Each structure stands twice: as C-alpha cells, then as structure tokens.
Amino acid sequence: MTRRFSAKLAAAVGLGALAVACMTAQTATGRIESLSSSKDVESAAERGAIEPGVEPGKEVPNIALDPASLLPDLPPIPAAKATLVGGTIEKLDRIEDRITVQVFGGGKTNALFDGRTHVYCDGRTSTLAVLKTGDRVYVDTILLDGTVFARNIRVRTAANEGESQGIILAYRPSRNELVVRDVTAPQPLKLRLTPSTRIMNGGRSSSAGDLAPGTLVAVEFGAERNARDTVRQISILALPGAAFTFTGRVTFLDLHNGILVLASDTNQRTYEISLGPLVRVDANLREGAEVMAQTRFDQDRYVAESVTVQSGPEN
How far is it, in rounded angstroms, from Cα 136 to Cα 182? Predict the structure, then answer.
C-alpha cells in the first residue's frame, strides 16, 4: 500500500514539474516571438530586457501545483477488533511507514502506519513526528489488507520513568506491598509502601483502606527500578463503580467496537471511553464534536452510560 502511494506521489511530482516547465517554455517562446517582430530586438537584448516569461510592466503569476492534490484520499480505516501491543520502538522506517516494536516479555511486532494513525504522547493528542526509537509505546493494531496496521500509537516519554498508572491487583498490608498492573509493563509492578508514603484521593489525604483491587491509581516511586520500588505517593484516580462526567472534543470514534476517545476541556488529558450497549448514539456524534459523557469506572475502563453532543465538529 505504501509503495503504491509513493509511486503515485513520484508520478505526481514529475507531472507537476513537467507542467510548470511547459508553461514556462510556452510563455518564453511567446515573448521572444513578440519581440522578434519588433525592430528593437537587438537593443532589448543588449539591455538585458528579454526575460523569458516576463512581460514589461506585468508581474509573473506564481504558478505552482500541489502533487498531493493529484493523489486520492486515503480510505477510512475499516472497523475491526484491535490487538494491544506494548513495548519499545526498536526501528522506525519513515520511508516504508513501518514501526518495529520490541514487545515487553519478548518477541517483536511489525506494523504499518500512515496519516490515519492516531498518536498520543503522555495522554495528549500528538503527531507521527514525535515517534523515535527507544520510546515506550503501546500500539492498537488491526489487520488491514493482509498486513498489521497501527491504528493508535500511545507514547510514554522518559519523564514518566518514576511514575506509573494502572489498576490495583492486590494490596497486602502485612507486607506493605502494592501490586499494580500497568498496560505498558511486561509484568505487574510490586511496590513497597513506607510510613512516609502519601495517599491522595481527589486532592485530599486518604488511607491504605481505599487501595481496593480494581482501583485506578497513579503512583510515584523511587528512581531505583526493581521488584520492590518504594512508593512516594499514590493518587487514587477512580474507585470501582465511581461516576465520572467528561466534557471535551471527540478525537477518535469507533462505533463498531464501541470506543470513543475524548480530549478533556478540564485538564487537557485524553480519555478512552467504552460505549455501553444501552448508549443512544446521536447522529451528530463524530470526530471533532464537543460532547458530555456520563460514565462509570468499571474494572479497568470508563464505560459511558450516556453521551450528549453539545456542538457538532467545526468545518
């Protein structure tokens, strides 16, 4: 697919260059023939007044062709169930539009990407330009035309090496041990609490009694990366069954798989929301629309109970 589009682009560039060259040559010929009918040809040439394509007293039109305008638009990505792959970028080929991911726990995955691929950097909408080898990523892949295609690429930068966000699998008070599943980590993280560990819930101090399995938390721990890192602070983001209201712009929508990605107006973060089977889908629900989503946190995801379109996408 990439090579076909590359070939079309090369052809378009060639056509554009040929068209400009022909127009310039025709204009130059016309001017020279006009001057040839005059007795002032020699004197004009001596003065350097003969300029191909330039008529005295008139400006040269700026003629340019955009080769991209000669190419067909990329077809929309078909609805398909995505497979999540977490790891680090081992190779990034921007000529062939291919990414190679060294998967956490072993193995490699190759996937194609193009302008339809959505990129998120630390939860915020970004572009393919931010990708580089060594980045920690997790990729939503689908099978497209017989090849693996990256529908979404989520990047976690080096600034987050002392942080983690995930679901509590277990809390063992006798060991002061917290087990958290981070989707980008190969194995669950085992973190050690100390008397100085702060536990926060909605900006207020909380206690270890709120560290129930299924709770979504953000954890800040020590710089030493080992199986029993020391936790500095735990922020409770969502308790199982807790209700949340999100308002913001839809950046991605997959009605077939019931996935909506929303960029929050409140904190500028991006949230992936599952559309429950009972959610009534507004005909104006599309990418770019401003919406309000009433959700509940269920195990490891936000599940929408209703989605209200507040304004349509900007033209």
Answer: 12
pLDDT, one tens digit per residue, over 77-115 is 777 667 777 778 999 999 999 999 887 656 788 999 998
Q: Note the pLDDT tens digit of each residue in 32-60.
A: 444 444 445 445 445 544 445 555 555 55
Q: Tell me the C-alpha distance between 188 and 198, whole Å.
A: 21
Residue 208 token pair:
């270890």
Q: Residue 29 and residue 53: Cα distance in Å, rounded?
A: 8
Q: Which two tokens stand for residue 213?
A: 């399995």
Residue 1's SS3 state is: coil
Residue 109 near residue 174, CB atoms below 8 Å: no
Return the residue matching tokens 């909605």: 202
CB burial of residue 174 (10 Å; 0-12, 13-18, 19+): exposed
Place of tokens 């077939």: 256
Q: How far apart are CA 93 and CA 315, in angstroms?
A: 33
Which H or E run includes 90? strand 83-93
- Give the SS3 label for residue 29: helix
Reported as a single tens digit per residue, the pLDDT across 270-314 is 788 888 777 888 888 988 899 999 998 887 788 898 999 988 776
CB 140 within 8 A of CB 116: no
pLDDT computed for residue 226 by the predictor? 45
16: which residues sit within 8 A by CB, 6+ positions away?
Answer: 65, 66, 67, 70
Residue with tokens 């921007």: 94
How far is Cα 199 from Cα 206, in angstroms, rounded to an integer? 5
First to last CA, the chain: 29
- Tokens, residue 76: 């929309």
